[in-house]
Structures are given as structure tokens and as C-alpha cells.
Amino acid sequence: MGFLADIKKLIKDWFTFKEPEKFEKFILKEKESETRDHREDNDSDEKKVESEKGQSEGNSENIKRNESTGSKKRGIKSQFAPIMQIGAKDNKKEEKCECEDNEKKEKEEEQKDVSSMTKVSKKLSDNIAYLKQKYTVPASADVVIREFHITVKDKTIPACIIFIDGLVNTDVMDMAILQPLMLLSNLDIKEDEYDVEEIVKSRLLPHNQVKIVEDFSEIVGDVNFGGCGIFIDGIDVAFTADIKGWKGRGIDRPNTEMVIRGPQEGFNESLRTNTGLIRKILKDAALVVENIAVGKRSRTPCALMYIKDIANDSLVDEVRRRLNGVDIDYLIDSGELEQLIEDNSFLAVPQIMATERPDRVAAMLTEGKVAVIVQGSPFALVMPATHIDLFHSSEDSYIRFPYANLVRIIRVCAVAMSLLLPGLFVAITNYHHEMIPTDLLFAIEASRERVPFPSLVEILIMEFAFEFIREAGVRIPGPLGPTLGIIGGLILGQAAVAANIVSPILIIIVAVTGIGSFAIPNFSLGYAYRVLRFAYIFLGATAGFFGITAGLYLQGIWLAAAKSFGVPFLSPLGPVTKGAMSDQIFRAPIWKQEKRADYLNVKKNRKQPEISIKWMKNDEKK
To answer: Which family does it belong to (predicted)?
Structure first.
């Protein structure tokens, strides 16, 4: 019974795949039982039986017992045959699973090794695997990895080229890269000159901008910016070539800084076109253009421009430090970069000048300032910027100085009226009636006799209406924008007066305020004064002239404390400097502008000799 119970338990263990080792223990137990049976047989043979009947009966019993033992063994083997087959199948399955697991582990290790690559490998297959994993090929349909062969000294070498379709000029790539490598590479090379890297660079790549690169990060950056990468089996470097070919906007007139006299060229969205426009004006070898990429994902190229023998090194280092310290995912326009590197983001007025005129950037570079141009933006950033710089126009340099001074005075008056006129009107009508002539006071009160609103509500209605019309005129495309502003303003103003919502005098004040805001040369400064105008309206309605005076005092303190890259924002007025007044509030004759602004601490303070009109001196001698 114990033997059968062991068999049942063993079968159960085998079918449940829990303890397959017991099968071996059972075989050992069976062998021990066979040895015991043989010993008993030998003992029975040695015994002497007295009678033949007893001996024959004993022999017959031994035979039956041996037969029964043999049948038991055969039965056990027949019973365990399917179990052994199951065990063999299980072993095969386990071996197969182990092989699959090993293959998966090997693939994962290979992928891990490829993803951790930072340098170009000598194996072309590893480089291709890294590029496919980096660019998610073939899911990324615009990324092309083209494999080909190069024949050098009767030896065929595998190679590949990677580029992004839509960013490159395919004609240049075919004629200057692929054709020389694939069709003209069967060269007669001497034994001592056999160097694949040198042969490819000096003889097989006629393109003018070929670089030898080792880091994958630099290769990926060049490919993403309209270049191509060339990999050759057996060498641990790659070749990159600049073959940009995307479509862009041509050079057009500037839209926000139009002038009557002066250059009519403006920046566009191409970085190299913009830097070329500046170099076309400044043909100076000392003009430096540094490339800095901003954005971890966009890797937007930016150009840091300055004249190395004029600009202050501390200023250049500070601008470079701020550009390298910007840690964002993407950068689209220079307006975003301006907000990331300015000194005080809560200051209403801009601390960096944005301009789309190459001539203005070139003039400021000669003064010792620094410019930053961003790929994809038609506006260049110039720093540092002072409050007076924002009132200047590039046209001031191209007209005679009396006209330029008159225009600057008009701009200052226009800014003051656009900023303070609505607030002064509210303060006078509410608190200071004695400040205006009696006849004018009676006329104002008569015009407001049927208006049901107080002066504050009345002027806010018209100010918001004017802002609505201006914003709509900007958003409407084509020539309809200015037309909408003029017609909309006339119709809306006439209807508001006819409906007794506002008074006619208020329509005049709002119109003058709007026209004055358009006289500001810098559009960012215009936005700032539009916001501050509402603050002065509330101050005038709350405390009259005292509130407006307090607002001006606080604004002056705010501006005096502001700095732009270490330069006081109110320079050269606060603090007062001596050598920078020839072209600040008033413009001196051009032959009197002998020195640069001293608040910049430039390397060369003098920009022209004391006598720059030498022909006049020669005439005096005669």
C-alpha cells in the first residue's frame, strides 16, 4: 500500500509541475528493492530442502514471485512513460523560453548601448541604429537615411547620409555630396596616402561648408538646422555640410519703423540674411558674430553681435551669460527672449530695444552696444537701452539737425499728451474748475449737460472704444485695417455724441490722445504708455492734480531705479554724464558728434576726430 501511495503522489506532483525531482528518488528506491529481491533469491537457493515436493513448490513460488516483480517493473515503466514525455517537453519549452529571454536581453542591451552613445562609432551599423532610434525612424517620415557605397583604392566602403526632407536643398546635396561620393570616388591613391577621412574631406566633398564632427549632439543640431550628416564605415568621425533649402520671406520694407528718407530694407526671418544685412553696412573685421542655441528642444539659433574693439567686455560677457542661462524647452521669437533676459519683467517700459531696421542696429553697434538676432524673428534686440533711446528714430540721422530736433520736441509733447491729457481732463472737470477760463468752463459744462454719466465713466467708455477700434484694425488683414480705424472712429464718435452718451469735447480729447500715442517711435513704449494712461485717469478722478503729481513722482522713482544690463535707464540724465549729450535729447550737427556715450564705458570713446570735415579746413588755408 505504501508503494502504490508513493506512485500516486509522484504522478500528482508531475502533473502539477511542482516536484519533478521525486521521479529520480523513486527510481533509486526501485533499484534498492530489486537488489533486496536478488539477495532473498540467493538465500533461498542455498537452503537445502529435505523433500523434493517442498523444493519444487519453493522453486515455483520463486518463479511466480520473479514474474510478478518483472510485471510490476514493466507496469511502472509503462505508467511513467507519458510522464517522462511530459518532462522532456517541459525541458524543451524551458530551454526555448530561456533562449527567447536571452535574445530579448541581448537586444535590450544593444539598444541600451546605442542610446547611450555620445561619440560617432567606427561601426556604421551602430551609427545608423542610433540615428533611427534618435529620430524614431521609420515613424518620422521626413527623416531620410540614405545608404550607399564609396570606392576608394578598389575598396568598397559602406556609408550613409542623413537629412530632413524640406529643410535641405536636394539639388545641392545631389551635385555637391552624393555624386562626388558615389560616382567620382574611384581615385588613384598611393599607399602612403590612404586615409579615408582625409580623402573624403579634401577630394570627395567639394561643398564649401564641411565640418568633421565627433559628437552626436552637434551632428543632430546641424541636421535639425538644414544640414546633412555623412557617416562612413571604419572611421569614428562624421562629416556635416550646410545645405539649407527652406523657403522664406524676402527682404521687404520695415512695417513698424517706416521712414521717408533712409534705407528701406528690413529684417526677415532668416538668421544669416539678417546678419548679412548688418555686415553689408558694417564692413569691419572687428564685427563678431557668435552663435548661441537657446531652447532644449527647439535649439533656436541666436546670433550675438558686437564690435570687439569698441564694446565693453563686461557688457558682452553679461549678455552671453544671460543667453546661456536661459533654460526652456523652445524659443520661437525674439519677444520671448526679451522677456527672459531683461532686468525687471514688472517694469512697464521696455529695457531692451527691439528694431527691424539693419541700419539702426549697425549704428548702435558702432556706439558700443550689443545686438542679438534670433532665427525666425524679424526683430533684433539691442541692449542696453535707455529711456531716451526709445524716443529716437533712425530717420533722425538722415535729416538735418534742426528738423531732427523739432521732430524730437514734437514726440515728447505727443507722449506727454497721450499719457496725461485724459487724466488732466477728469481732474479739471471734477476738482479744479478754477484752472480753466470761465468761457471754456461754461462751454464744457453746456456740452455735458445731457450726458447722464460722470466724466470718469464717460472717458473710460471712449478710451475702451478707441482701443477696440485700434485692436480690430491691427487684426483685420490687408488695407481694410486703417480704413476700419478711420471710418469706425468717425461713425462711433458721431453716434455717441448724437445719443448723448459722451460730450463733443471728450471726443476731441480721446482723438488727440490716440494720435499722440502713434507718434511714439518704439511700439513697446507705446504699449507701456497706453497702460499707464488708465492709471493716471484713475489718479485724476480720485485726487485731482495731487494724484497725477504723485503718480509722476512714483513713475520717476521707478524709472530712476531701473537698469538695463547694468546701465541706469535714465542715462545720461540720471546720473548726468558729460560726453553723451551730442545726440540724446537734442541732436548736434553730425560733425560735432565726436565721442560715444560715456555711460557705456566703451574701449574707444572717440568715434571721429575733432575736425572731420577736412575739406573745409583746406579751403580755409587757401
So the answer is: Belongs to the GerABKA family.
Can you say whether the dihedral through the CA atoms of 491, 492, 493, 496 is positive or negative?
positive
Instruction: Please tell me what DSSP assigns to residue 49.
Output: P
* 3-state secondary structure (DSSP) of residue 204: helix
Q: Kindly give the pairing relationship between strand 567-568 and strand 155-164.
A: unpaired
Q: What is the 3-state secondary structure (H, E, C) of 600-622?
A: HCCCCCECCCCCCCHHHHHHHHC
> DSSP assignment, residue 597?
-
Runs of H (alpha helix) within 369-477: 401-430, 438-447, 455-475
Residue 365, number of CB atoms within 10 A of its CB: 22
**Alpha-carbon distance 399 to 412, whole Å?**
18
Per-residue pLDDT tens digits for 351-398: 999 999 999 999 999 999 999 999 999 999 999 999 999 999 988 989
Half-sphere exposure of 64 toward its Cβ, with a 13 Å CA cutoff? Answer: 6
Q: How far apart are the first and last CA of the chain?
A: 144
Sheet strands side by side (includes 227-232): 143-152, 155-164, 227-232, 238-242, 210-213
Cα 463 to Cα 14, 483, 507, distances in angstroms: 92, 19, 10
Q: What is the pLDDT of residues 13-47, one digit of tens each?
A: 554 444 455 555 555 565 566 566 556 555 555 55
The CA–CA distances, whole Å, from 579 to 382, 409, 593 equal 21, 22, 10
Give dist(CA 598, CA 176) in Å, integer: 51
What are 476's three cell numbers?
A: 483685420
Distances (CA, A) of 535 to 160, 418, 510: 64, 12, 15
| Neighbouring-strand partners of residue 287 | 307
353-355 and 380-383 beta bridge pairing: antiparallel
**Cβ neighbours, 10 Å, residue 458:** 22
pTM of the predicted protein model: 0.76
Given a contact cutoff of 8 angstroms between Cβ atoms, the answer to whether 337 and 271 are in contact is no
Query: Contact at 8 Å (CB) between 201 and 210?
Result: yes
Residue 401 corresponds to which cell in the numbers above? 539737425
Domain boundaries, the chain: 2-109, 124-242, 271-385, 410-568
Identity at 418, one-letter amino acid code: S
Q: Which three cell numbers stand for residue 99?
A: 533562449
- Length of the chain, please? 622
Give dist(CA 69, CA 36) in Å, integer: 12
Q: pLDDT tens for residues 123-155?
A: 999 999 999 999 999 899 999 999 998 877 677
Q: Residue 216: which residues within 8 A CB-CB, separation 6 or more?
A: 117, 118, 119, 120, 130, 134
For residue 619, give every residue at least 6 positions away whose Cβ sits within 8 Å of its Cβ, in sequence order, or none. none
Q: CA geometry: angle at 197 spanning 193 and 199, to 5°?
A: 50
The whole-angstrom separation of Cα 341 and Cα 361 is 19
Closest to 475 (Cα-Cα) out of 487, 466, 488, 484? 484
